[in-house]
Amino acid sequence: MFKGVQSLESLIRSIHQLSSLFDHMDDGLVIADKKGEILYINRSGRNMIRDILEFQLKHRQDNTDSIDYHIDFLDSYIGESLTRQKTFKNEKVTVYRYQESYSLYLSTELIYSEADQLLGVWLTIKNHHRYQNDDTGDFSETFSALGQIAAGVAHEIRNPLTAVSGYLQLAVEELEGHHLQKKFKDIVLPELNHTLEILSDFINMSNPPAPSRKTTTIEDLLQQIIHKITKSCLNHNINLNLNIDSNIPPVRVDEGQMKQVLWQTARSGIDSMPYGGTLSIRAQYLNVVQYVLIQFEDTGLGLKKTDFQQSVISRIIENHGGNLQIDSIRGKGSCVSIYIPPFDESQHFS
Fold first, then answer.
1. Backbone angles phi, psi at 316, to 5 degrees
2. Phi/psi at 335 (nearest 5 deg)?
């Protein structure tokens, strides 16, 4: 699920700017708006659809610009994803002609705006040969590579913006008494700094650095993000239950990274409940095994265990000496358990 997109137009503009990357992907990529109109297809997607048409019609379609890409199976998956706000994962689509068949595998992700408004759908196509040669049967490698590239782009954007922010702060001081000073100080600088924070969070989540640890409490970390979780639950008709035991010892963690872990875990549970439900967050200390336990339990459609195991969330928890456990029943809900070791003062020498 893609969240926080400014507009489909801006997303497609960004894709066009990286057209050499997307056109060299082995997987097909299709983007449609909320009405189901196809706005973008990369080169592999066009070729796969052309191959389907050639297989059905048994003649060559050399001019891909003349092809009507609204073929039945594509429209069906796009339409159902938008109408039911449902995503598909590696759905096999087979086209038959007499005794022959041609298969593709489709996955969809919904695209939402910053205000959680549905904008459209992102559909990925994998041909039968690539799917059979993919041990995991998913697109983790492709999106991992895209994530690394996006992190590099974000890094290149952040560097000049940091310089701009520095010069702008000097300019604000020079504008003492000028009518523009208030606008720069109250509007431009805060927005620029907010953008820098977003870029920094994205870079760190794409490739987290070694933890910069501080002593804090799980309660304090949860309180710092609870307003975001509460707002997201309200927007999705989800009840929120929060239960934090009072006897939890402090932990020594990278606060920024751990807040991202807690927020992203909560958001995964929220995203799994498109029709509403309940999200329960519990924190307690397990004295027997000497771990602080934070649990996120939802009544959603279920989470894919491998998605968490291969995610940055898992790497951050491991870097903190912790463990991650996912229990999920499709259609009934999930429970994500995060185990973090408590701060042991006897082992802290800094």
1. -65, -45
2. -135, 120
Query: How many angstroms separate the CA atoms of 91 and 103, rounded?
Result: 10
Burial string for 269-286 (b: 16+ CB within 10 Å, else e) reads: bbbbbbeebbbbbbbbbe
- Cα dihedral sign for 238, 240, 241, 247? positive
For residues 106 and 174, what is the distance between their CA atoms, to the nearest angstrom?
Answer: 57
127-151 pLDDT per residue, tens: 754 444 444 444 444 444 455 545 5
Backbone φ and ψ of 210, nearest 5°: -60, 140
- pLDDT above 70: residue 230: yes
pTM of the model: 0.47
For residue 211, report the phi and psi dihedrals to the nearest 5 degrees: -60, 135
As a whole number of angstroms, the distance between CA 163 and CA 168 comes to 9
DSSP state letter for 195: H
Could you tell me where the DSSP H helices lie in 185-284? 189-206, 218-235, 255-271
Residue labelled with tokens 């996120």: 296
Distance CA(348)–CA(350), nearest Å, equals 6
**Domain 2-134 CATH class label:** alpha beta
Domain range 214-347, CATH architecture: 2-Layer Sandwich (3.30)
Alpha-carbon dihedral sign for residues 46, 153, 257, 264: negative
User: Which has the higher per-residue pLDDT, 223 or 21?
Assistant: 223
Q: Are 313 and 274 in contact (CB under 8 A)?
A: no
Return the ∠ at Cα 225 (arms to 207 and 202), rounded to 5°.
20
Which run of H or of E encompasses 121? strand 118-127
